[in-house]
Design goal:
It catalyses: N(6)-[(R)-dihydrolipoyl]-L-lysyl-[protein] + succinyl-CoA = N(6)-[(R)-S(8)-succinyldihydrolipoyl]-L-lysyl-[protein] + CoA. This protein is of the alpha+beta class. The protein has 13 helices and 27 strands. It has four domains: about 110 residues, RNA polymerase II/Efflux pump adaptor protein, barrel-sandwich hybrid domain (OB fold (Dihydrolipoamide Acetyltransferase, E2P), Beta Barrel), CATH 2.40.50.100; about 100 residues, RNA polymerase II/Efflux pump adaptor protein, barrel-sandwich hybrid domain (OB fold (Dihydrolipoamide Acetyltransferase, E2P)), CATH 2.40.50; about 40 residues, no CATH class; about 220 residues, Chloramphenicol acetyltransferase-like domain (Chloramphenicol Acetyltransferase, 2-Layer Sandwich), CATH 3.30.559.10.
């Protein structure tokens, strides 16, 4: 006897609702057959048979709420209840055909189970419980190598590729672009060896075209409860299947039933129609999160910005004088960012409020300096963290920034590499920005904006001289940082940049 229980559904998910049972008591089942679909507030999960046998008692009815680990049903051994189901076959035919039938069942199972491997969603970080299916890189029938990327999953923090667990042929894609998945969910089936895929692909065709599977079970319940017309709902799932999200969207617009079809055709970003010269593209999960967090920061913090400018002559002269020797010894170029990281760390020690954060009615002062360095990528802005930057040399900072920047552009940053910064530096100057007001990276209370170095006429000792100048902008949370502290901090950064030796002597 094998117990069928509710699997883990994600770190923050504690219960689920039983959807549609695909089998009933007394049905013969094979290992990996789908038994029931569980629905959570984030994703629908299929529970599969863990062994061959016959369905025994079902303990949870459709619509019941069940907790993680709760018993859903049992599968009896084939020798008990299975014998009752096999008796009519034994009465109506001799044992020879029965014996011949068994290998056929096992062959079918071998093709669908022993030789077919599921590609599943990997763990995407400690606090990430779901992601959105991005672009599929393969299609059913494609040959793939082991570890070849099959699909990209977008989360609110990082993009993750799902690799092929084996070399073989893609037999079926289980989820569509835009679907929400959780760690451990199966996204595709891979047949080891090209010949093994002919049967599964042929079997999948009729089932996908059938009326029953055109609407996902979880969606069917929503359609039935809201008395919707399934024919008027445009499915966004694989091969036009109607997903739960499609049904919920249609239910939300149910009062305007005659206009249901046009509403379904419009993208969820905005209700208005797009013109012939417009293109509507759904925001990625990362872009949605960036938008939400930036707006949340503006709503929660009292953001104020103070400006100054720095003469970059000393740093530029130092780089010119020592660049060749620096590269020969450390293998990386001496850039501007390492000087800024050092200057900011040095100033933070003098003005600790800029390195603190508000937690309820308390202020948390941080006696460590983990610097977030904003990096622009094709997917959006990410902020990897240089840990304990105050204890690093210029060469160590440059190497770490190069390493993190490459991982960011390749979409391979881990969650740990983007969490826990105490202060952020954003360099808009690399794109030509002359002046800007950066937005706080919550819950931090300060962010420094670097800008383009531009030669400008400056007054010095009564004479006009041309200097390489950079505008600096410090945005800060006025709830915790007073104006005096913010101005003092920015002046210290300016002084450290204009005379880097101050940092050597701890001035």
């Amino acid at each position: 006897m094998t117990d069928i229980t509710v699997p883990q559904l994600g770190e923050s998910v504690t219960e689920a609702t039983v959807g549609s049972w695909m089998v009933k008591t007394g049905d013969a089942v094979s290992r990996d057959d789908v038994l029931v679909e569980l629905e959570t507030d984030k994703v629908a999960v299929e529970v599969r048979a863990e062994a061959d046998g016959v369905m025994g008692e079902i303990f949870a009815a459709e619509g019941d709420n069940v907790e993680i680990g709760a018993k859903l049903a049992v599968i009896e051994a084939a020798g008990s209840d299975a014998a009752a189901k096999s008796e009519p076959a034994e009465d109506s035919s001799d044992p020879a055909p029965m014996a011949a039938a068994e290998p056929d069942v096992k062959e079918s199972k071998a093709a669908g189970s022993a030789e077919t491997v599921e590609a599943t969603v990997p763990q995407m970080g400690e606090s990430v419980t779901e992601g959105t299916i991005g672009a599929w890189l393969v299609k059913a029938g494609d040959s793939v190598e082991i570890d070849q990327a099959l699909v990209e999953i977008e989360t609110d923090k990082v993009a993750v590729e799902v690799p092929s667990p084996v070399a073989g042929v893609v037999s079926e894609l289980l989820v569509a672009e835009g679907d929400t998945v959780a760690p451990g969910d199966a996204v595709a089936r891979i047949g080891e060896g090209g010949a093994a895929q002919a049967a599964p692909s042929a079997e999948s065709q009729p089932s996908e075209g059938s009326t029953d599977t055109k609407t996902m079970p979880s969606a069917a319940r929503v359609i039935e409860e809201n008395r919707l017309d399934a024919g008027a709902i445009t499915g966004s799932g694989k091969d036009g299947r109607i997903t739960k999200g499609d049904a919920l969207k249609a239910a939300a617009g149910a009062p305007a039933a005659p206009k249901a079809a046009p509403a379904a055709a419009a993208a969820p970003v905005a209700p208005r129609e797009t013109g012939p010269r417009e293109e509507r593209v759904r925001m990625t999960r990362l872009r949605q999160t960036i938008a939400k967090r930036l707006k949340d920061a503006q709503n929660a913090a009292a953001i104020l910005t103070t400006y100054n400018e720095a003469d970059m002559s000393a740093i530029m002269a130092a780089r010119k004088a020592h660049q060749e020797a620096f590269v020969a010894k450390h293998g990386v170029k001496l850039g501007f960012m390492s000087f800024f990281v050092k200057a900011c760390c040095h100033a933070l020690k003098e003005v600790p409020a800029v390195n603190a954060e508000i937690d309820g009615t308390d202020i948390i002062y941080k006696n460590y300096y983990d610097m977030g360095v904003a990096v622009g990528t094709d997917r959006g802005l990410v902020v990897p963290v240089v840990r304990d930057a105050d204890q690093m040399t210029l060469a160590e900072i440059e190497k770490e920034i190069i390493r993190l920047g490459k991982r960011a552009r390749d979409g391979k940053l881990s969650i740990d590499e983007m969490q826990g910064a105490t202060f952020t530096i954003s360099n808009g100057g690399v794109y030509g920005s002359l002046m800007s007001m950066p937005i706080l990276n919550a819950p931090q209370s300060g962010i420094l904006g670097m800008h383009k170095i531009q030669e400008r006429p400056m007054a010095e000792n009564g004479q006009v001289v041309i200097k390489p100048m950079m505008y600096l902008a410090l945005s800060y949370d006025h709830r915790i940082v007073d104006g005096k502290e913010a101005v003092t901090y920015l002046v210290r950064v300016k002084e450290n940049l204009e005379d880097p030796q101050r940092m050597m002597f701890d001035l």
